[in-house]
Design goal:
The complex is a heterodimer of chains A (115) and B (112).
Chain A: E1 3-7, E2 10-14, E3 19-26, E4 30-38, E5 45-51, E6 56-59, E7 62-67, E8 72-77, E9 86-94, E10 103-105, E11 109-114
Parallel strand pairs in A: 2-11
Antiparallel strand pairs in A: 1-3, 3-8, 4-5, 4-9, 6-7, 7-8, 9-10, 9-11
Chain B: E1 4-7, E2 10-13, E3 19-25, E4 31-37, E5 44-51, E6 54-57, E7 64-66, E8 76-78, E9 87-94, E10 102-103, E11 107-111
Parallel strand pairs in B: 2-11
Antiparallel strand pairs in B: 1-3, 3-8, 4-5, 4-9, 5-6, 7-8, 9-10, 9-11
The chains are: A mainly beta (115), B mainly beta (112).
Chain lengths: 115, 112
Amino acid sequence: KNQVEQSPQSLIILEGKNCTLQCNYTVSPFSNLRWYKQDTGRGPVSLTIMTFSENTKSNGRYTATLDADTKQSSLHITASQLSDSASYICVVSAGGDSGTYKYIFGTGTRLKVLA
Amino acid sequence: NAGVTQTPKFRILKIGQSMTLQCTQDMNHNYMYWYRQDPGMGLKLIYYSVGAGITDKGEVPNGYNVSRSTTEDFPLRLELAAPSQTSVYFCASSPRTTGELFFGEGSRLTVL
């Protein structure tokens, strides 16, 4: 069964500190992996996309990694800001003729950044 | 561009009532999706469409219906609302089958 698991469920850090969010997946065949940021009361917005051949990709203070062998991804946030407080959702896309559920969603990590 | 627009943002329904959640996108995307998001759960796919005139069921279609008469619009119909349909509903679109999802702002529905 295709699954995406994220850890931790929630995280509280002080402004200016770094943090790393984890995503483990069992999705086959793998197409790509995206991290989305969801602010409270808003829809998710894509931060990064990782394809099979990519190990690391940065978007400002956000750096995503992908280890296709261990089926793990991480999202590292550097020098956190209050505006980083949000839920971060890992979404894995299934490739090929994998039927209806092309997008498999994790349950998200809720990040709270304190001043 | 407005992107994906959903209405209404909030609605309270009584058990047994019906309503339609509206969704429109101006990005000319063929793929459109309806998800529901419950606390502590990942987004669940209700219905999706790969183009005008084509719709199909997702994981949790019971109690819902959709139509796709144009590329832009993908309304979700709730018939005979039940408390189990209390949730936040998101409409999304994508330019291709595994492409980036563009979400609307969500519609929070409460059934009492």
